Amino acid sequence: MNAPITGTCDPAFTAVRDAFAANFAERGEVGAAVTVVVGGRTVVDLAGGWADEARSRQWQTDTLVNVYSVGKAFVGLLALQLVDAGLIDLDAPIADVWREFAAGGKEGATLRHALSHQAGVPAIREPLANRDLWNWERMTGALAATEAWWEPGTQHAYHTNTYGHLVGGVVHRVTGQMPSARLRAITDALRADMWFGVPATERRRCAEVIWDPSRAVPADLDPHSIEGEARMVMLGYFNPPGYSSNGVVNTDEWRRAEIPSTNGHGSANGVARIYAALLEPGRLLSPDLLREAASVQSEGWCPVLAEHSRFGLGFKPTVAHRPFGPNPNSFGHFGTGGAVGFADPDGGVAFGYVMNHVIPRWQSTRNRSLIDAVYASM
Questions:
Q1: pLDDT above 90 coverage of the chain, percent
Q2: Is residue 151 part of a domain?
Q3: Residue 342 resides in a domain
Q4: Looking at the domain assignment, is residue 352 inside a domain?
Q5: What is the CATH number of the domain that holds 10?
C-alpha cells in the first residue's frame, strides 16, 4: 500500500518531498510529517502515511505524536525565559527557589547545571511505580530527595527522563504554574501545536507510537538489582518502569500526564513554528541568552548516551556526527526514534520532523535525508 502524502511544498524544495516519499518507500516510515521554514516563510509542510499500526487512519498535518526528547528544548526554553525576566539566575542554586532540592549533596546544583545535564540526578534512587509517574508532586518530590550521583557541576550524564521534572520543577517553583501552562502561553501566541499533557479534547489527533521490536524491554528487568554506573543508567530509563514510555506510550494516562522530558506531543508544524520564533531576535529569548544557550556548556564522555557529548542550555549545539544541517551555529534537539526540531541562524532555517515508527537512537537515514534535501534545495 502506497503511503498517502498531503500538504504543501514550494517547487524549489521538491527534493524534500522526494526524500519524504522515499522514507516511506525505502526506509520503513509508517507515519510522519515535516515542516521547513526559511526566512520566516513556510516552504514545506507535508504529512504522510498512517497514524496507527493498522494503517487505517491517515496522518494529517495536524496529527500529534509523542516527540520524546524534542520536548527537552522547550522545557529548557521555559526556564531560560525566567532568566531573561530576572526571576532566577543561571548560576544561582536551585535550592534558592526549591528548598527541598538541597538534599543529598545537591545544595550547590545550579540552573546552569540542570539545563546542561550536570546536576547529578539522571535517575531517581527511590523505587517508584507507574502510578507515581502520573503524579507531578510525587515525581518532583522523589527527585528532590535523591542523593546526587556525583557532585553537581563536576561531570555530566544525559538526564534522559528526569530532565523534565528537574527543569520543569524549577519553572513550577518560580512561577507557581505548571510547565504545560507556561508552554501554552507560547504556543497560543505562535499557533504552534505542542503540548505537555494533551487535553482530552485533542487526544483524538494523537498517532500511535510503534516500537521497533528490537527495542523491546525484557519483562523481568529489575534496574534496582544492577550495580555501579549501570544501575544509574537503568534507573534513569526504568524507574518508574514507564518513565521512558515503555508499555504506556499509547495510553490516556501517558498522554495526559506532564513529563516534559519525554511525553511532549506535537506536530512537525508546531515544532518548526517554535524554532522559527527563536530566530526572530528577542521574540522568545534575548539574543545574548539564546547564543549562550546554543553554545557548548559541558563536553565529555556521557555514560548514558555512551559517547562523547556536548550540551548547551536546554538545546544541543550541532555536532559533526549528528548535525543540524551544515552550518556551525545551528541548535535544537533530537528525540527517541528520530523526531527532531532545530534552528539554523546562519541559513534562516527552522525545521520540524515527527514520526511514529520508533527506531534506534536519534539520527536516522530518514531525518538525515530530509535535512540534506533542505540544504540541497537552498
A1: 93
A2: no
A3: yes
A4: yes
A5: 3.40.710.10
Phi, psi angles (nearest 5°) of residue 255 = -65, -30
Cell, residue 376: 540541497
Residue 24: what residue type?
F
DSSP state of 55: S
Q: Do 76 and 317 form a contact (C-beta atoms < 8 A)?
A: no
Asked whether the whole model's pTM tops 0.90, one would answer yes
| pLDDT tens digits for range 273-316 | 999 999 999 999 999 999 999 999 999 999 999 999 999 999 99
Is 370 inside a domain boundary? Answer: yes
Q: What is the pLDDT of residue 1?
A: 67
Residue pair 155/236 in contact (Cβ under 8 Å)? The answer is: no
Copy the grid coordinates of residue 240. 518508574
Cβ within 8 Å of residue 224, ≥6 positions away: 127, 231, 235, 239
Domain housing 327: 5-66+263-376
Question: 90: helix, coil or strand?
Answer: coil
Residues 71 and 68: their CA atoms lie apart, in Å, by 6
Instruction: Phi first, then psi: give them for residue 204, nearest 5 degrees.
Output: -65, -20
CA 251 to each of CA 38, 142, 235, 312, 370: distance values in angstroms, whole numbers, following the listed order: 36, 24, 22, 32, 30
Q: How many helices (H) and strands (E) does the chain have?
A: 12, 14
b/e per residue 15-37 (b: at least 16 CB within 10 A)? bbbebbbbbbeeeebbbbbbbbb
Nearest to 76 by CA among 191, 204, 196, 224: 196
Mean pLDDT of the chain: 96
Number of domains, the chain:
1
Q: Is the pLDDT of residue 218 over 70?
A: no
On the question of pLDDT at 160 being above 60, the answer is yes
Whole-number pLDDT of residue 359: 87
